[in-house]
Amino acid sequence: MELRVLKYFLMVAREENITKAASLLHITQPTLSRQLIQLEEELGVKLFHRGKYNVTLTEDGMLLKRRAQELVDLSDKTIQELSHKDDTLTGEIAIGCGETRNISALANQIAIFQTEYPLVRFHIHSSTADDIKERIEQGLLDIGLLMEPVDVGWYEFLRMPYREKWGILARKDSTLAPKQVVTPEDLTESPLLLPQRDQVKNEIGSWFGEIYEHLNITATYNLIINATAMVRSKVGIALCFDLGAIYEDLCFIPLSPELETGAVLVWKKSQMLAAATSQFIQQVKIQFEHS
Fold it and tell me: DSSP state, 180?
């Protein structure tokens, strides 16, 4: 498979119209159609359902779309890392971030870095720790901002300054809303939304103790914005961090006893880093190790 053809395929998958995709790619429609047919023959699968006016991806097409996007992203990232203009620092730094207030501290460091090195671009990917670690292994991300608990055995890491406090996010008309804190016993009768990661659920399970086995867990989530929508719709009460967000119709109540979680900034051990990434890590180390 040629990278050029994969880019053609991705354009058609995005536009769902071969004529429009060909125009955007500045090639003829017959040329693009021929390239797609050759790609299908090379792979031995059908990639598109072809209609009269549009095309849609088959199941195999959807799989190739995910893999093709990863390959194209990795190619673009490699080109950025190898691009040099005299001794000026250039390139792209890809960072994966979980939901944490520590992103503010990291954002401040990015702003400082870009003041000195304005040709360096940052790409921020928001996701869970497990997804971020996988993308670091694939070479799609340079650095990860991960919420604990997390296995950092394969990484160099730096501990971030803020620790997140756990609590519940509930509707303001909930019977729990007037409370200053909530205990495990307060939550035994409520439908609950828990974070999706197994390691996090184990930590929450330890906080609940024996009560955990009897909880009414109605759903799990990986992004708090989705959990917020479910809380509003009375799916349940979400266990989450206090990220400082203010909601008109919801309230955050801390846990008692307190439960806190730290965050770490990680990058792969024993790996040659691009100049921009290496310089940024050095800056962050100086700032956080002495703060």
Answer: S
